[in-house]
């Protein structure tokens, strides 16, 4: 039984402190996910907090089938979509800087972020969930509410497009 399963079991048996532990486990991952989908650090913090508030508010209706991580990301995805609708889809600045240590490592990271941002929304989401959030293809399919094969084909298409852009960029520099 995983730590997550154990915490969910304890919570079902009336131990309310388990929700705090689940928030602690997933907070930084959900925050980084929200950073990708919002225009500022403050908006990402708000989206992260709203995500966990919704999870806590509706936790009694959650039925655990061993996929709590996918459930959290689905809630975060919906919260971010709602924020985009409210803000009328602000464009991300071209020179967006990330303060999180994982995003500021190299110039390659910045270039990769720009390449990912140029992908169609469906492909971009698959790339972010797979590589920035380290979700499995099965978890991604659940978050996106699509068949497993569709998630796989979108991932392949996105990677092919990124490779094509990298190769095109390299030829221009020569």
From TrEMBL:
<dbReference type="InterPro" id="IPR036388">
    <property type="entry name" value="WH-like_DNA-bd_sf"/>
</dbReference>
<dbReference type="InterPro" id="IPR039425">
    <property type="entry name" value="RNA_pol_sigma-70-like"/>
</dbReference>
<dbReference type="InterPro" id="IPR013249">
    <property type="entry name" value="RNA_pol_sigma70_r4_t2"/>
</dbReference>
<comment type="similarity">
    <text>Belongs to the sigma-70 factor family. ECF subfamily.</text>
</comment>
<keyword id="KW-0805">Transcription regulation</keyword>
<dbReference type="GO" id="GO:0006352">
    <property type="term" value="P:DNA-templated transcription initiation"/>
</dbReference>
<keyword id="KW-0238">DNA-binding</keyword>
<feature type="domain" description="RNA polymerase sigma-70 region 2">
    <location>
        <begin position="22"/>
        <end position="88"/>
    </location>
</feature>
<dbReference type="InterPro" id="IPR013324">
    <property type="entry name" value="RNA_pol_sigma_r3/r4-like"/>
</dbReference>
<dbReference type="InterPro" id="IPR014284">
    <property type="entry name" value="RNA_pol_sigma-70_dom"/>
</dbReference>
<protein>
    <submittedName>
        <fullName>ECF RNA polymerase sigma factor SigW</fullName>
    </submittedName>
</protein>
<keyword id="KW-0731">Sigma factor</keyword>
<keyword id="KW-0804">Transcription</keyword>
<dbReference type="Pfam" id="PF04542">
    <property type="entry name" value="Sigma70_r2"/>
</dbReference>
<dbReference type="InterPro" id="IPR013325">
    <property type="entry name" value="RNA_pol_sigma_r2"/>
</dbReference>
<dbReference type="GO" id="GO:0016987">
    <property type="term" value="F:sigma factor activity"/>
</dbReference>
<dbReference type="Pfam" id="PF08281">
    <property type="entry name" value="Sigma70_r4_2"/>
</dbReference>
<dbReference type="GO" id="GO:0003677">
    <property type="term" value="F:DNA binding"/>
</dbReference>
<dbReference type="InterPro" id="IPR007627">
    <property type="entry name" value="RNA_pol_sigma70_r2"/>
</dbReference>
<feature type="domain" description="RNA polymerase sigma factor 70 region 4 type 2">
    <location>
        <begin position="112"/>
        <end position="162"/>
    </location>
</feature>
């Amino acid at each position: 039984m995983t730590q997550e399963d154990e915490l969910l079991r304890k919570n079902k048996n009336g131990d309310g402190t388990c929700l705090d532990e689940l928030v602690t486990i997933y907070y930084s991952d959900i925050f980084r996910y929200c950073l990708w989908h919002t225009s500022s650090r403050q908006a990402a913090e708000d989206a992260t907090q709203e995500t966990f508030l919704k999870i806590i508010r509706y936790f009694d209706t959650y039925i655990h089938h061993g996929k709590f991580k996918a459930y959290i990301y689905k809630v975060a995805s919906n919260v971010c979509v709602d924020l985009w609708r409210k803000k009328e889809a602000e464009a991300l600045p071209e020179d967006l800087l990330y303060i999180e240590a994982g995003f500021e490592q190299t110039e390659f990271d910045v270039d990769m972020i720009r390449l990912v941002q140029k992908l169609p929304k469906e492909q971009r989401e698959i790339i972010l969930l797979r590589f920035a959030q380290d979700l499995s293809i099965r978890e991604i399919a659940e978050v996106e509410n699509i068949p497993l094969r569709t998630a796989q084909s979108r991932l392949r298409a996105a990677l092919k497009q990124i490779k094509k852009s990298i190769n095109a960029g390299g030829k221009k520099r020569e």
